[in-house]
Amino acid sequence: MAAPNLSTRLALETSDRIADGLGGYETRWRQLGWLWAQMEARSGREQGTGAGMISVVQWRITLRAASVGDARRPRPGQRLRQGTRLFQIEAVAESDPSGRYLDCFAREEDLT
Questions:
Q1: What is residue 73's DSSP assignment?
Q2: Mean pLDDT of the 62-90 span
């Protein structure tokens, strides 16, 4: 396997649930750090919602591996950010047999 070209800088973010004082909560996103990645679009579709149509793209995002439990290892439910673009992480798996790289399978949604 050829080494991936980790040339795209992404911020790894996690969500925090903050009580709103009325029995509910709000979600706030907090940056954990920066990761270098290779991004590959896998599929895309247009999806209708109550607010109109949105474009949904599935991505495979490859980055350096980190051990399970390490704060630098992305987890489902976290997201990656590139400027205003957001990539919701749905699954994470080792990319190669030697365990040097991870693949994050993520979804990007954009209002059209």
A1: S
A2: 93
In Å, how far from its chain's centre is CA 82?
10
Global confidence as pTM:
0.86
Structure tokens at 74: 């992305």
77-92 residue pLDDT tens: 999 999 999 999 999 9
Q: Residue 65 has which token pair?
A: 């591996």
The rounded distance, in Å, linking the Cα atoms of 2 and 96 is 10
Q: How many domains does the chain have?
A: 1
Domain-located, residue 34: yes
Structural domain range at position 69: 8-111
Torsion angle of the four alpha carbons 38, 42, 47, 50, in this order, in degrees rounded to the nearest 10: -30
Sign of CA dihedral 104, 81, 7, 110: positive
